[in-house]
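Late entry, written up from scratch paper. The run itself happened at the end of the previous shift, but nothing got recorded in the book at the time, so transcribing now.
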Amino acid sequence: MQTSPNEPAGPPAAHAGEAARGHAQGHAASVHVEIPSPKVRVRGLNFYYGSHQVLFNNTLDIAANHVTAIIGPSGCGKSTHIRVYNRIYELYRDHRAEGSVVIDGKNVLDADTDLLDLRKRVGMIFQKPTPFPTSIFENVAYGLRQHYKTGREELAGRVEDALRRAVLWDEVKDKLSRPATALSGGQQQRVCIARAIAIEPELLLMDEPCSSIDPVGTARIEELIMELKKRFTIVLVTHNMQQAGRVSDYTAFFYQGVIVEFGLTNQIFTKPSEKKTEDYITGRFG
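Output as recorded:
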């Protein structure tokens, strides 16, 4: 299902089953690696759509300057989980989180969190490309104008730098004044990535960034992810297990709102500890 910044991913279709609830009494069912000095520490995260609970005691560490993939069947809570990191869920009525999401030592769920600053530090790329109905240049410059005081020359330089890092500059440098919406789907998504990274976030959340893009565009974005992790910490939600295997360092498997298993990607995909993880990876369900 496609979502946009103005549309929350809908609640999972059913409540978590008894097995999931059993796991929810503890942390992840199986944790194979220790993350030294993680960028993000999630502890005891529960999430509710009104009275309907959709995340159960999520506990997860996100390694700095690595890619962590979140996999699992539709409606298992993957997108909901990462939307807590920048509290974008607060745009919608009756959405509520409990627990802690600590980024660089600060629990972002605390009442005194500056949301404007948080969303500068935690950028997000959505499933469907969401360029603004303005020029390519103005799309990338948007966040820079919001958060920094820059002269025209510096602004142009930072826009160019972001487009270069998004591997898009050579394709658009002669048409920066044209509407971003006129670009191909893959190019639009890279404009959105350039817009997000232009303001130098510490953490980049990617929610199915290739789900509506052709194979050529997908390959370019996967190459881009591998390059971006040198400067950013990336959390990637994906239904594409081949993609998770290609680009991620760590993988968390979600099922019915519970983190069933977390570990090094290679280990999760070749020797999972949990039967449910193995069943999902081998296509027995999902």
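Residues 1-31 have pLDDT under 50 and may be disordered.
(Scratch paper discarded after transcription.)
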